[in-house]
Amino acid sequence: MSIIIKNADDIAKMRIAGRLASEVLDYITPFVKVGVTTGELDRLCHDYMVNVQGTIPAPLNYTPPGHTPYPKSICTSINHQVCHGIPGDRVLKNGDVVNLDITVIKDGYHGDTSRMFELGEVSIQAKRLNKVTYEAMWLGIEQVAPGKTLGDIGHAIQKFAEGQGYSIVREFCGHGIGKQFHEDPQVVHYGRPNTGVKLQPGMIFTIEPMINAGKAAIRMMGDGWTVVTKDHSLSAQWEHTILVSDTGYEVLTLSAGSPPKPL
Q1: How far is the C-alpha of 176 from the C-alpha of 181, rounded, in Å?
Q2: Hey, is 169 helix, strand or coil?
Q3: Rounded to 5°, angle at Cα 4 from 18 and 181
Q4: N or C: which end of the chain has fewer CB within 10 A?
């Protein structure tokens, strides 16, 4: 495992990329409503990134080993879709919940973040899952400091989510990020305290728990990208990009419209 420790210049550019990614979510929020297609949300985000921000949508044509190129500029994962939902003709309906996952490239550096959106009258169960997942992400973030471990992050998330009766998706995780979309280390959302990689200043990675209302099992859809819960239960995800600072952590993907940290 080769973890890239970012220098002051890298960190300055990652701050910009992270803020810009979050600002795409701020921009798109008023458009996420009943009756819109996920393809329209993708088009709006793409145009905002390219024409307003001067950023590159990182997912577009992204081709990890064993995959076909990803065909769109954002990911839109609805209800029981866990991650990597491909935007298209699907119309968002009253009661839907959707995760919008945004990654931009600015001056060669990646900013990566996602938020959950609730459309119209959402079930109590969906609201609770979204809230618990958001709180779980922040409990993981609060473990970040020099000398702590990746196991501390995963344990905090797992203990809280499973304590609420939910399950953690294990096949997908957070990741190092910088000039590359995905770098070492892998940041899993379960684990034991005081295990795994020890954190040190200059590390930058995402924390992005995927939490299911039912069982943890998932399956891949025929498009080769969209991941869903095997039992069709709801899934939620939130994501921030985090810097390990000299004294603790800095969230790089905050902007004017970011939801506040839980009390």
Answers
A1: 8
A2: coil
A3: 45
A4: C
Enter the tokens of residue 221: 């859809």
Q: Tell me the H-state helices in the chain.
A: 8-28, 38-47, 124-141, 150-163
Could you report how far apart the first and last alpha carbons of the chain are, in Å? 36
Q: What is the predicted pLDDT for the residue at 86?
A: 98
Instruction: Tell me the whole-structure pTM to 2 decimals.
Output: 0.97
With residue 225 as reference, give the H or E element that holds it.
none
Bridge partners of 244?
Answer: 249
Q: Which two tokens stand for residue 118?
A: 């609730």
Q: Kindly state the DSSP code that residue 50 receives in the 8-state scheme.
A: I
Query: Going along 108-226, which residue ranges are E strands?
Result: 109-118, 167-168, 174-176, 183-187, 204-207, 210-212, 218-220
For residue 75, which phi and psi values (nearest 5 degrees)?
-110, 135
CA-to-CA separations, 68 to 60, 62, 74, 227, in angstroms, rounded: 11, 8, 16, 15
Q: How many CB atoms lie within 10 A of CB 175?
A: 19
Report how far residue 236's alpha carbon sits from residue 219's, in angstroms, rounded to the nearest whole number. Answer: 16
Q: How far apart are CA 65 and CA 117, in angstroms?
A: 31
Per-residue pLDDT at 1 exceeds 80: no
Mean pLDDT of 95-121: 98
Distances in Å between the Cα of 94 and the Cα atoms of 25, 30, 103, 104, 172 are 20, 15, 27, 29, 28
Query: Each residue of 23-53: b (16+ CB within 10 Å) or e?
Result: bbbebbeeebeeebebbebbebbbebbeeee
